[in-house]
Amino acid sequence: MNMRGTPQFAVVVTLIATFFWGSNFQVTKFALASLPPWTASVERFFFAVICIFIFFAWKEGVRGRVLTQNWKAFIVLGAIGIAGFNGAFFIGLQTSSPITAALIVATTPITTNILEAIINRRLPEFIRVTGMVISLLGVAIVITDGRLISDGAIQVTMGDFIIFIGSLGWAAYSVGIREFVSNSTPLATTSWTMLFGAIILAFIAFFIESPIADLSKGTLESHLACIYIGIGGSTFAYLFWNMGISIRGAGKTAIFFNFVPIFALIIQIAMGNMPGLAQMVGILITITGVFLGQSAIKPKKLFDLLLKRSNGELR
Question: Which residues form a coiled coil (predicted)?
Fold first, then answer.
């Protein structure tokens, strides 16, 4: 049986995408050790664009018809989902704490479903909303180690607001590639949006920093990190994410974004840093919420099964 194009295949490639994004948190530390953020981001997408277009040309062939038909959408989506999201994250972290930033980004599945519902003029299923809320709670527990609020209050900075705008940009990108791009494959959409996003990032980098001089001063370790982030954490991640959206839709795919901090934590464990009890509880809650939101867990069927067992109807 050919798995390609099936919901099961979409789940697998979506999980792979979130793994790559989760690994970016650790690898980015090596990239930023000797490179400024905008320059590192440009180098990352330089390798990503080369890699994706080589694969694009080999797999499908680069045809002008798709670009001619969708060039406006590709530019806008590249600006929002590639340059906008990454730029807002880098700028926002200048005043926002990593914990607060991660919590804000974790709201992306909720905003994605809201945007998709508004565009399609329908409400998301209650069970999906419930699953998202539960998984979001789990993510909050993981990234705060059980401390959801410190000092009795939540302090919002300008960086928090900027990161929230960036998360809205990613939600709009996830919905937009399905709603506003026509007659294009996931590979073509990923390639063109990534190209335009990289061009916009380059303009910003040359305006704010000195990329050429900074790249010449970078260490081999930082450049290797950028290559990994560009190929794995950008090319394959974006491609697999778009494949998932094309098969299952933006709403069903977006909830898997909550796995990004979970995979980041797993990589942290592999590097010798064990999580606490609160983080382990958060992982279980997140996974439960994701499966619930994907309707992999049917509450009514589960309740009926437990009821039958308690009545001795099952052996």
Answer: none
